[in-house]
């Protein structure tokens, strides 16, 4: 297995010549780029022209990761040529939040097979209920399949996102790549670092991923009270203060990030489900814990026994980037430090992360760093 990386910027083009010698049906090209590329996908077209037999999969982001850097390049790409692994991609339109679970089922149905080892999924970040998408994926793939990925980003604007799977960039779509082969080695890790504070409050009215009332009061009005002077910066300001939510049956919370607000209904929209009758608690960040969490996520995902190169894909929440600010690259460096020497790290800041936790099935997360490692063994 061979992995090389490239970056593209508008002023100078590609950082180095595209590795046309790596082109093959067993080559996976992961790309992460600026939201504006949906209108002018020049570097994606150049990649597909230079590597016509390869599979190109990626999405828009709230920040591109390459190596130890949060790069200013408009697009980053890792070109990975497998020796013993087969690749298949799919892209399916998603008609909106109600179509989320069916979109996951369509992806799973298209790629499921007895020899499927890993599924990496990239979704529209604005018009999908990520929890339902993950449930749809789980409906159609076996328990032995490692499912990871994330929701596409649009910096802090929450206006447009795109995905690509052997296509031009597409809005309102879900893209995925399935990897098959008995020599494939895939690891996955996920860790947060936000701390809850204040009282737990009762979720008195919610539907799917929309929260209407907390403690019988309009959710948006109550949340604005917490934000104070920053309420006018919604929904972006909410990335600094996610909610920990849990149902009555759950002992541990799930972190949820706000992706939209409705002033008329006084509601909050999240990237995943909010349980009516459950509980919500505000959260805040500890920067040192965020950096340590990134290292723990990479350590969980790293699989040291492999031959050749290792591809590592980091998906971290846009909220972490906003909170960390000038320290953002510290979490990237911490993740890279925990990986095997020579690992090729690429990734992006997202509107939601998809990964298993401690051996459990995959889930939608917010405010986490997740790391997927991909490599092959010689036997």
Shape call: globular
Radius of gyration: 20 Å
Q: Could you report the average pLDDT, rounded to the nearest whole number?
A: 92
Report the span from N to C terminus. 13 Å
Low-confidence stretches: none
Q: Classify the secondary structure makeup into a structural class.
A: alpha+beta
In total, the number of strands is: 27
Strand residues, percent: 35-45%
Number of domains: 2
Description:
With 379 residues, the protein is α+β, with helices and mostly antiparallel strands. The chain folds into 2 domains: 2-191 and 288-376, no CATH class; 194-284, Elongation Factor Tu (Ef-tu), domain 3, CATH 2.40.30. Helix content is 20%, strand content 40%. It is built from 7 helices and 27 strands. The strands form 4 sheets. Strands 14, 15, 16, 17, 18, 19, 20, 21 and 22 form a 9-stranded antiparallel sheet that branches. The chain has a 6-stranded mixed sheet with strand order 2-1-7-3-4-11, with helices on one face. Strands 6-5-24-23-27-13 form a 6-stranded mixed sheet. Helix 2 packs parallel to helix 3 and helix 5 packs parallel to helix 7 (328-338). The mean pLDDT is 92.
What labels describe this entry?
alpha+beta, Elongation Factor Tu (Ef-tu), domain 3, nine-stranded antiparallel sheet, 20% helix, globular
């Amino acid at each position: 297995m061979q992995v090389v990386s490239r970056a593209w910027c508008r002023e100078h083009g590609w950082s180095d010549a595209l590795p046309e010698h790596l082109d093959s049906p067993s080559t996976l090209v992961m790309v992460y780029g600026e939201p504006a590329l949906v209108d002018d996908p020049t570097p994606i077209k150049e990649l597909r022209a230079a590597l016509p037999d390869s599979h190109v999969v990626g999405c828009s982001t709230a920040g591109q990761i390459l190596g130890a850097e949060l790069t200013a390049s408009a697009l980053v790409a890792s070109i990975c040529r497998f020796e013993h692994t087969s690749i298949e991609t799919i892209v399916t339109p998603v008609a909106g939040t109600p179509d989320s679970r069916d979109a996951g089922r369509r992806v799973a149905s298209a790629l499921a097979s007895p020899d499927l080892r890993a599924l990496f999924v990239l979704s529209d970040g604005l018009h999908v209920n990520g929890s339902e998408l993950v449930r749809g994926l789980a409906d159609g793939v076996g328990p032995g399949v490692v499912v990871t990925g994330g929701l596409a980003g649009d910096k802090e604007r929450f206006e447009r996102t795109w995905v690509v799977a052997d296509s031009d960039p597409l809005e309102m779509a879900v893209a995925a790549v399935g990897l098959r082969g008995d020599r494939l080695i895939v690891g996955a890790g996920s860790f947060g670092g936000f701390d809850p504070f204040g009282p737990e409050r009762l979720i008195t009215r919610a539907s799917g991923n929309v929260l209407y009332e907390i403690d019988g009061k309009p959710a948006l009005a109550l949340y604005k009270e917490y934000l104070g002077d920053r309420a006018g910066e919604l929904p972006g300001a909410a990335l600094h203060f996610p909610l920990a939510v849990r149902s009555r049956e759950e002992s541990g919370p799930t972190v949820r990030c706000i992706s939209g607000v409705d002033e008329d209904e006084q509601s909050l929209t999240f990237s995943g489900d909010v349980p009516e009758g459950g509980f919500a608690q505000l959260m805040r960040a500890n920067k040192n814990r965020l950096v340590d969490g990134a290292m723990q996520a990479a350590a969980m995902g790293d699989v040291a026994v492999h031959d050749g190169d290792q591809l590592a894909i980091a998906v971290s929440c846009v909220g972490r980037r906003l909170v960390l600010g000038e320290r953002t690259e510290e979490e990237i460096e911490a993740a890279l430090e925990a990986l095997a020497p020579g690992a090729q790290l690429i990734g992006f800041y997202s509107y939601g992360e998809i990964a298993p936790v401690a051996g459990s099935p995959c889930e939608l997360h917010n405010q986490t760093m997740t790391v997927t490692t991909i490599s092959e063994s010689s036997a």
